[in-house]
Amino acid sequence: MEFDYIIVGAGFSGGVLAEQLACRRGAKVLIVEKRRHIGGNCYDCYDKNGVLIHLYGPHIFHTPHKRVWDYISRFSEMHLYHHRVLGLIEGRKVPIPFSLATMDEILPKSLGQRIEEKLIKQFGMGKKVPILKLREENDPDLKFLAEYVYEKIFAFYTEKQWGLKPEDLTPEVTGRVPVYISWDDRYFQDRYQGMPVEGYTRLFERMLDHPNIKLMMNTDYFEIKDEIKAKKKIIYTGPVDQFFGNCFGELSYRTLDFVFENHPTERYQETATVNYPNDYGFTRISEFKLMTGQISPTTTIVKEFSREAEIGKDELYYPMFTDEWLGKYKKYEDEAKKLDNVLFLGRLAQYKYYNMDQSILASLEAFDRI
Ligand code: FAD
Ligand code: UDP
Predict the structure, then answer these.
(1) What DSSP state is assigned to residue 153?
(2) Among 154, 174, 163, which residue's Cα sits nearest to residue 308?
(3) Distance between CA 43 and CA 40 in Å, rounded?
């Protein structure tokens, strides 16, 4: 059977492009997906206690892009949800990212006020300052604050998550959770934030429900690639190094071990996510009901344990964002650019720290170019 496009992977990167090509071009599309389900890492399902869980870790939708928000709203009603995170610091659970609200809870009043004034004077109210940037300050009060935040929030969490110090990663990684000179205690400030009312999987089902889209599930593309043909293009959203047979060596990724627990109580913790920068082996605990808004007599939480991924065995969740690994990726990127008939898209194919909305935008823009 011949298709116009073959898409490898049924996550947002592949799914959005499939939908656009089928609906707007009338193209015939085959999606090959090695898992038993669609949705990629955004897949959700009900556990045996009837609680809606995200099998590959908590996924909160947020975007500054109206185009992306309008796009996903076509496939699901979104319920308003603003994510809030607490972090256990010195026995107290305080707002993360570190903000004026956090400082108010942790520091003595007079010291807090003095530092607040200096932060506002130096950076401005409402500004977000990455911790590695704050550490460059010379003022003794700001230096004190920077060291405090670095030690108590970033150093051990980053060690657990990446096996590295914050400064050994590219600055964008810890820059995702900057010191926020504001009283706003939300994790994200994007204009559009919410959760799909019936879950992500249902959203994907609607997105891919088109007579021109065929799904081949439970199939590794590399095992069947010689048997299928794309008249126009292959869109590949798996790991880029695997596509090229690891010709420049395997890239490095982090994987996560998720430990799910159901508790016979309506609510387990104060906010949907509590980070543990200094305690325990896991980085954070998330409670699904507090994000999805589901009402049920029990609740399910997930603990995340991070470690280096064993290629071929583990799920690959995070590319390694260090100069060394990005440098190695560059060789694959150059190779990918030489292939006119293959488009590399998504977190693993582009070795990028994409959030969902960024993957969707990248796919919408790729469609614009096709
Ligand atoms: P994926 O979702 O990984 O999809 C790729 C698909 O390709 C997979 O289904 C895979 O099975 C398939 N595939 C790979 N190789 C092959 C092959 N050889 N043959 C067939 N199929 C193949 N983003 C947010 O915006 N908010 C969040 O709160 C958030 N939380 C996250 C939490 C975690 C723990 C992780 C890991 C990511 C999180 N993200 C979040 C990011 C989000 O998951 C990604 O942006 C999004 O899933 C990227 O979509 P994708 O299609 O590129 O990749
Ligand atoms: N981070 C940290 N302490 C925290 C929260 C985040 O050190 O309490 C750092 C850590 O290096 C983490 C990065 O900031 O990997 C990005 O955090 P984010 O919550 O965006 O990670 P993700 O949700 O993508 O796993």
Answers:
(1) I
(2) 163
(3) 6
Distance from C-alpha of 33 to C-alpha of 46, rounded to nearest angstrom: 21
Is 350 touching ligand 2 by the criterion CB < 6 Å? Answer: no
| CATH class name, domain 2-38+208-252+319-369 | alpha beta
Helix (H, G, I), strand (E, B) or coil at 11: coil
Residue type, 278: N
Instruction: Render 49-82 in DSSP notation, one character per residue.
Output: TS-EEETTS---EEES-HHHHHHHHTT--EEE--
**Spatial distance between the Cα atoms of 78 and 194, rounded to a whole number of angstroms:** 6
- Ligand number nearest CA of 304 is 1
- pLDDT tens across 152-161, in order? 999 999 999 9
Task: Say if pTM beats, i.e. exceeds, 0.85.
Answer: yes
Q: Which residues of the chain have pLDDT under 50?
A: none
Domain limits of the chain? 2-38+208-252+319-369, 85-180, 254-308
Each residue of 235-248: b (16+ CB within 10 Å) or e? bbbbbbbbbeeeee
Ligand 2 pocket, residue 173 CB under 6 Å: yes
Q: Which ligand is nearest to the CA of 283?
A: 2
Tell me how far CA of residue 169 lies from CA of 107, 189, 352, in angstroms.
Answer: 29, 24, 13
Expressed in angstroms and rounded, the spacing between residue 78 Cα and the centre of ligand 2 is: 25
Tokens of 254: 């982090």
